[in-house]
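STRUCTURE:
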């Protein structure tokens, strides 16, 4: 698919999703960019800010099979991946797939289930397959996980360790809407006289695969690739950091920036694309020193300082 056609489709997808999720164009663009880059997204924000609605709306507009798994303390790995059940009529065991066999899986409140079940999901995210009773089953293509977590309520939760957070290409937050956008949410709900907003599918799984194939054709100049590496490396030597972003972080920067460039209608990446995705790509891959946990130091504050410190290469458009 040509880049211009891909950009037009991506922006029409965002326009349609915004009919349901009001005033969140930027975080929605980041989430869509992650999907186009074949990545997974952790949406971390307070309740009631549209996390679940965004996942369901994207699945509808992208024409993907949608499944939602509510991560509770008693959720078992088999509840997610599926299991073999005995069929008395045929006298054999039959595999019943779990919710992970969906084009887009919403892992709701992923931090409320024990690490064993979290690991089962994260293995599926990485390998794009699950193994049950010694048999391996491939997941649908495309396959994307949008996981949600509440950053405030910690009682009864199991925070994801850094190694598992690293599996998510992006971590994004939606934040509270502005007053006008919040009123728009109220006015639209009153006007349509029902709870749900019906969205039109603009593509399907094959169309999304074509979009993802277009992203793979986007060029990354050596200067921009080295800029990604320098940003990730700079997080490792920052004074506030215990563990910085791994090479997977610099790779994630390049992959997410390529998808962001496609949404912007370009077949090449410029440093501004890298900067646009740097905070959601690198922020959750940085561990702050324990003595600074009670300060305002955070992964995103480190990324902001690194963006100011690392020299930006000349943009390709100026050459």
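SEQUENCE:
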């Amino acid at each position: 698919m040509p880049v211009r056609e891909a950009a037009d489709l991506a922006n029409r997808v965002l326009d349609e999703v915004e009919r349901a999720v009001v005033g969140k164009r930027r975080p929605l663009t980041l989430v869509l960019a992650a999907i186009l880059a074949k990545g997974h997204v952790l949406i971390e924000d307070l309740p009631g800010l549209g996390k679940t609605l965004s996942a369901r709306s994207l699945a509808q507009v992208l024409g993907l099979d949608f499944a939602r798994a509510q991560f509770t303390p008693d959720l078992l790995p088999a509840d997610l991946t599926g299991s073999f059940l005995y069929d008395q009529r045929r006298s054999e065991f039959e595999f019943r797939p779990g919710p992970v066999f969906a084009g887009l899986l919403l892992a709701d409140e992923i931090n409320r289930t024990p690490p064993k079940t979290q690991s089962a999901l994260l293995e599926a995210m990485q390998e794009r397959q699950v193994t049950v009773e010694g048999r391996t089953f491939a997941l649908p293509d495309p396959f994307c996980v949008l996981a949600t977590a509440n950053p405030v309520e910690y009682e009864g939760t199991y925070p994801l360790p850094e190694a598992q957070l690293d599996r998510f290409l992006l971590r994004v937050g939606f934040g509270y809407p502005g007053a006008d956008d919040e009123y728009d949410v109220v006015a639209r709900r009153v006007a349509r006289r029902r709870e749900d907003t019906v969205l039109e599918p603009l593509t399907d799984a094959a169309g999304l695969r074509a979009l993802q194939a277009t992203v793979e054709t986007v060029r990354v100049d050596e200067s921009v690739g080295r800029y990604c590496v320098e940003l990730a490396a700079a997080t490792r030597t920052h004074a506030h950091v215990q563990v910085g972003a791994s090479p997977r972080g610099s790779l994630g920067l390049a992959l997410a920036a390529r998808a962001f460039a496609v949404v912007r209608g370009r077949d090449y990446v410029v440093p501004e694309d890298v900067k646009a995705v740097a905070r959601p790509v690198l922020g959750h891959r940085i561990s702050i020193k324990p003595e600074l946990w009670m300060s305002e130091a955070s992964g995103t504050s480190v990324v902001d300082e690194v963006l100011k410190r690392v020299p930006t290469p000349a943009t390709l458009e100026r050459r």
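REMARK: The chain has a mean pLDDT of 88.
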